[in-house]
Amino acid sequence: MDDVIIYTQNDCPPCTFVKNYLTEHNVEYEERNISNNQYRLEMMDYDAFSTPFILLKGKPMYQVDLDEINSILKIDN
């Protein structure tokens, strides 16, 4: 299982922010754009209805929490 999976959609500034943040900190992630119906349904299985929705080492994150991301992924700022 991937450590970081981000469900995104087009024209989503918070999605872009999270992707850029992870890239700047050399964190690999898998992006799943919900324009793909399969990914949209996967996200909804978690009762998530907005993006970005993040699976962080299998733990659902419904809103961007940089402190938690940093803690779980051991990112030092």
Automatic annotation (TrEMBL):
Pfam families assigned? Glutaredoxin
SUPFAM superfamilies in the cross-refs = Thioredoxin-like
Q: Which PROSITE patterns match?
A: GLUTAREDOXIN_2
CDD domains referenced in this protein's UniProt entry, alphabetically: NrdH (cd02976)
Q: Where is the Glutaredoxin domain?
A: 4-59
* Name recorded for this polypeptide: Glutaredoxin domain-containing protein
